[in-house]
Amino acid sequence: MNLNRLILPHCMLLRPKRTLYSKKYGVDLIRYTHAANTVVYSSNKIDDTIRYLSLHDNKYIRYFPGHNKRVTSLSMSPVDDTFISGSLDKTIRLWDLRSPNCQGLMHLQGKPVCSFDPEGLIFAAGVNSEMVKLYDLRSFDKGPFATFKLQYDRTCEWTGLKFSNDGKLILVSTNGGALRLLDAFKGAVMHSFGGYNNSKAVTLEASFTPDSQFIMIGSEDGKVHVWNAESGMKVAVLDGKHTGPVTCLQFNPKFMTFASACSNMAFWLPTIDD
């Protein structure tokens, strides 16, 4: 990766092509599935059922009832139709898109966040903002095969977990002004990243670049901050002309493009050298 191409990208503001409404149930977390033009999403009205939606005709394919409090994590397997969800009801549920019935249930001691690893064989659960548990998908009912306890930070709560594409790192997002980068095998904290604005405890999404070399997160003031994962040094602050907190930031899984969003969306492309 050419660092200059990372820190000097070209930004385009995007306009919506089409709007799909879920006024009855509301929309919170959205994840694409492997089938074309389909998503699963969690609701923020009426109930906490997860819904499987066809974007082509705006029709529901299936419902996944079970959680009785707000869903705070939703992660699609990178290899098949399995997905996991974590909720304020202190459970993680394992699902298969082909069945409305829960395929597995884990009761935890606190609010969880969860995510699959890049191979879809392992998933991580962050519990009570102080512990990361790793589970083998094939034998999750036997409990975690590894548990990493971190120093508790009473100033913030964990809001997300993500593995790097090479599977070697875990990124812990919070609703405060800091991220933590963990060694996925040993659980050691490699770096803590700060220096971005988040005074109102907003859930800001952080992401790895596809090559696992850099970490990015939006901020309350609309900027995007970039760090080198190995050195822990901040290498750029990008301005996408966002008018509010950048709550979503995701990379294309294969190419050097990413999108960031507040109430508007920016699409970032590498700068081409003249």
From TrEMBL:
What biological process terms from GO does the record include? DNA-templated transcription termination; lncRNA catabolic process; negative regulation of DNA-templated transcription, elongation; negative regulation of lncRNA transcription; nuclear RNA surveillance
Q: Which GO terms describe its cellular component?
A: Set1C/COMPASS complex
Please give one Gene Ontology molecular function term for this protein. chromatin binding
Q: Which Gene3D superfamilies match?
A: YVTN repeat-like/Quinoprotein amine dehydrogenase
* Cross-referenced PROSITE patterns: WD_REPEATS_1, WD_REPEATS_2, WD_REPEATS_REGION
A Pfam entry, by short name:
WD40
- Keywords annotated in UniProt: Nucleus, Repeat, Transcription, Transcription regulation, Transcription termination, WD repeat
Q: Where are the WD repeats?
A: 64-99, 196-237
Record flagged with keyword Transcription regulation: yes
InterPro entries per UniProt: Swd2/WDR82, WD40/YVTN_repeat-like_dom_sf, WD40_repeat_CS, WD40_repeat_dom_sf, WD40_rpt
Quote the subcellular location field of this record.
Nucleus
By sequence similarity, the record places it as follows: Belongs to the WD repeat SWD2 family.
Q: What is the name of this protein?
A: WD repeat-containing protein 82 isoform X2
Which organism encodes this protein?
Salvelinus namaycush
Gene name, please?
Answer: LOC120064936
